[in-house]
Amino acid sequence: MDRRVITVLVFTLCLCTTASAQSSRPAELSASTTPPWFPRAASLSVSLREGAVLPEARVQWQLLFFRSRKDSLGLLIEPSVAFAAARPASIPDASGALASLQLYSLLFGVGYTNRTESGLEWGFQVSTGPTWTQGRFTTSPARESAWMGLLEGRGRIGYRFGTVGSGITVGYGDPYNYKRSSRSRPFIGGLQLGLYADWR
């Protein structure tokens, strides 16, 4: 098994252990008025890697399994779509240039959020899942289409105005289980910077 996947599993178990060690009857956060079938958050971000700039839009569903007065821990489901808005002049193996790139992902993870009485909130999450990539290169009219895994870690900090919170996110992503021959892989993942809003 990939070492990065093992790291995520161990980290998730640690989070669950911490949650179970809390008081059995905490003062709970107010229940969300958002229907369970409706997304709880959305974000706009950009990924930077090997000269490629990929804007990304994603929405998030959340299933809480621990909630106290200030803390919450839940399972996350995040579909997303991204495309290369800026591309490098050449690719690492010198076989032409990247003409276009699209990513379609469905990530599953665990997220933690802490909210203070002043309205400040911060949190982090780890997630992984399948990604479908479609890339086109100047050396061939055919598109390169491939499936691979994507592992992400993100932190966020923001402020809550009533029932709505917003702020900034910073993270890093890395693909795994990809074909060695994939020419799109070097441009996937990398540093992530963005804005988020949630209405949990």
Automatic annotation (TrEMBL):
Residues 1-21 form the signal peptide. It comes from the Bacteria. Keywords: Signal. This is Outer membrane protein beta-barrel domain-containing protein. It comes from Cystobacter ferrugineus.
